[in-house]
Amino acid sequence: MTAVASTGRGSARRSPAAVRPGLILAFLCVVQSTVYLDVTIVNVALPSIQHSLHMRAGDLQFVVTAYGTVLGGFLLLGGRLADTLGRRRLLRAGLLLFGAASLTAGLTHTAGLLIAARGVQGLGAALTAPAALSTLTSTFTTEPARTKALGVWGALAGVASVLGVLFGGLLTQGPGWRWVFFINVPIAAFAVLAAPFVLPEHLDERRRRGTFDTTGAVTLTAGLLLLIYSLDETVTAGWQNARTVAGLAGAVVLLVLFTVTEARTREPLLPLRIFRRPTLRTANVTTVLAFGALVTLFFFASLFMQQVLGYDALKTGLAYVPLALAVAVGAGTASGLITKVPGKPVLIAGLALAAGGLLLLAGLPQDAGYPAEVLPPFLLVGVGLGMSFVPLQVAAAFGVPAGESGLAAGLINTSQEAGGALGVAVISTVAFTRVDHRMAGAAGDPAEALRAAQASGFHQAFFLAACFTLAAAVLAVALLPALRMSPPQPVDPKPVDPQPVDPRPTDPRPADAGPAR
């Protein structure tokens, strides 16, 4: 792979290691995998956290949602700050915040402090993730090199999300739930110290001299925070709850105010012209749908395995290992294919495979065996989603200038978080309503009736997740361009021989072609 420093109006100051793009890619993948890992690693530890900190069952959701809500709310601001203040600088600041919050979460003995620390973790991740992705896209500037790098990136991000469940089970049943947070501390410390020796810095001098869109930053961040929080609240409070309705209405008002502000300000936080790029626009909407299905899968597959099939936390985590490997295989396959064929059919094929796997999960019996009945759809979904991640990341950065790569990175990460929150909120409402209806008319053994009702509700959840995935595929078919990558241009290291000079008198008429002057 070849890497070229960003040029143009910005200045690029390169560290000695910046000429080694493989090292940069490895470093960025470790950083981003830590962010994705923390989205899921805490789920299996929740019962132990509840017992240790004497938390109410209704407060457990905030340990998960505090991280995701703040992460999703601040991602676009983080992407813009990366372009303005410097990507390496913001990445180090985010990692420092992330590591300090992880240490606090591991040491805390109160539920309130744990939830607050999770929110600060989300803020650190929101500063880190877009800075890391925009550094990758500005380091790998040729299309084939960038596509391969995004393939590795997509594979590790997907695997990290799945392995978070496994590591959560291992750490919780091993040294204890506090190590779910402690494990982040040495990784963050190492990355903060190593970043100046590994990563180049990129500063956009024009933006540093300009004014910062404070009003846009406040309204957008507050609107996204309120939107994602309100969507998460629907899982427990429902869509008709007054707090949910007020929160969603407030989010709409703030986002409309943000749009009006951006249309009038000279230096907008989110230039609305970026949405004129049809590829970027379609990639983000498709990502919302795909990640709605992905997060729904994690949420309800864990519940199905533990509440219907009777798995314990560790067995549930181990059951996800083949899914993680399948994601890696799918992403690796896509990153190889997309350099040879257009990315659009790769994306559509991946979404179709994922939808097929989710439909199989929607028909699982209550006594399903893992090898014959659970594993095959897990493999289909894993390969399909892995194949989808790569072309979606490529599409989101397709044709975006270097000075806006941080913004594009923040936008696609925001779509992932918002999509996950939206998918779980919508599908959980339908699934748990079905569970309640089935229980209302149940007779016989209460435990068996509850198990049957849960199975029915979870089947409905998998079916709706498949509908999300199919809708993403239809959108890609209808609106996404081919995403054909340009082949690398061969470079001849030999000097070009000068053309021989004709000693005869020249024709006064202009020639169609001639040697360069």
Q: Describe it for me?
A:
- The protein is an all-alpha fold.
- It folds into two domains: 18-198 and 207-212 and 269-477, MFS general substrate transporter like domains (Growth Hormone, Chain: A, Up-down Bundle), CATH 1.20.1250.20; 213-268.
- It has helices at 21-40, 46-53, 60-85, 87-107, 111-139, 143-173, 179-182, 184-198, 205-209, 214-237, 242-264, 278-308, 313-319, 321-337, 343-361, 370-397, 405-440, 446-479, and strands at residues 11-13, 201-203.
- A two-stranded antiparallel ribbon has the order 1-2.
- Helix 3 (60-85) runs antiparallel to helix 17 and helix 10 packs antiparallel against helix 11.
- The model is unreliable at 1-18, 205-209 and 487-517 (pLDDT under 50).
- Residues 24-484 form the Major facilitator superfamily (MFS) profile domain.
- Residues 487-503 have a biased composition (Pro residues).
- It is a multi-pass membrane protein.
- The chain crosses the membrane at residues 21-42, 62-82, 94-117, 123-142, 149-171, 177-199, 211-231, 243-261, 282-305, 317-339, 346-366, 378-400, 461-483.
